[in-house]
Amino acid sequence: MLPVALPRRPLSAAAVVVLLTLLLGVQPIATDVYLPALPTVQHELGAGIAATQLTLSALVVCFGLAQLAWGPVADRWGRRPVLLAGMALYTAASFAGAAAGEIESLIAWRALQGVAMAAAVTCARSIVRDLYEPGEGARVMSRALSGLGVIAALCPLVGGYLVERFDWHAPLLALGVFGAGTLAFVGWQYGETVPARDPKATRPVQLAGNWRAVLGHPTFRAWAALSACTYGGLFFLLAGSSFVFIDVLGTSRVMFGALLASISCVYVVGTILCRRLLARHGLRGAVKRGAWFTLAGGASMAGLSLAGVHEVWAIVLPQYLYAIGHGVHQPCSQAGAIGPFPEKAGTAASLSGFAMTLTAFAVGLWLGARLDGTVYPLTLGIGFASVTVALVAWTLVQRDGEPHRERAESVGARAA
Question: Which residue stretches of 307-344 are H helix?
Answer without folding.
Answer: 313-338
